Amino acid sequence: MSNQPPNDSSGSLDHLSLRYLRRVLDASHPTDEPYVLNEVEAWVIRRVRRRTIALAAALGALAVLLLYLPQYFWPAFFQEFTFTILGEGYDVPVISILYGVLLVYVEVYALMYVNLNAIRTIMAICQFPRAHDAQYDRHLKAIASVALSWKYGGIFSLGSDPHFGRPGWGLTSFFWFNTAKAFASDLLLRTLMFRFLGRFAFRQLTDLIGMPVFAFWNAFASFQILREAQIRVMAPLTIRSFVDELHEELGSDEAFCQLIPEALRCIGVQRRQYNYAHLFLFETIEDRFGIKLDTPSGEWFDRVPALSTEARSGLERLIIFSALVDGRLSWAEKKCLGRLHAQGIVSYTIADIRQIGKQYNDGKGLWV
């Protein structure tokens, strides 16, 4: 393995990965694929993920406790102020609101620290990116973007610092938005409790019911971030290995190469900046095959039967690989794969494809 372990790490999570790294850096790995986790690597990452999600959930529950317990024990510090608007007096808990905003601010940055530390640990365990990689700097920036979903348009990024020393506003915005969803869920739950319990819904119960709500949303957000980070660590070498293998087998088959843009367009793979896996797949295919993928020629299903058996198999593998490499199987991709399966172009069922995707998300490689 090519990278040396980081020397600026701290905390129990980093020490866990460093103990593993010091043991493996001196060992030869002639059969170890860099984009496939062995049992020890998978165990360490699972432990890191579980601990991070548990810490995030605990931070959510603790924030609710810290918000309400002082108001129960020292109510004099949280007196309401009366404001008169158009002759009407309104009691506003100004101090409670400011105190709550301060708690959310602290919670957001605590969540960022916990999650960024876990991402750095995953990168260290997977030794990503490798020092000899020609696109080393680019991969560092890519892992720092962590776009969580297409609907966010790539806004939520970790910033440009490759070692996560100065996280940008993107991840901060994501956690603030996640906290807003937790507040909305808490408000909805309170409303339902007052509606069905009436006078039995005393204040302490309705206040502290937010503990599991905030714990859930924090845990879910951390799960999303860590899953996306792991996919971004695995995707570059997975893509490069697959495309190299495909080019070696079918690079000289002109009929197959002509259908590559059509197949990618059909499955919905585009040159999208916010989907790093698809963008890297696009550019790697263009570079390796020497073709342009932005100009598909049109209908292509009629040309598939004329392909050789090897080319049809390669086309099927490319379609399935493209759908799964970003770690998600969207509704549009499932619909397309179902149509291609009905036409005989794809022999795998949706259930088979989902199983392949699950293995990929578990760090076992994307084998098609």
Automatic annotation (TrEMBL):
It comes from the Bacteria. The chain crosses the membrane at residues 53-74, 94-114, 200-220. Keywords: Membrane, Transmembrane, Transmembrane helix. This is Uncharacterized protein.
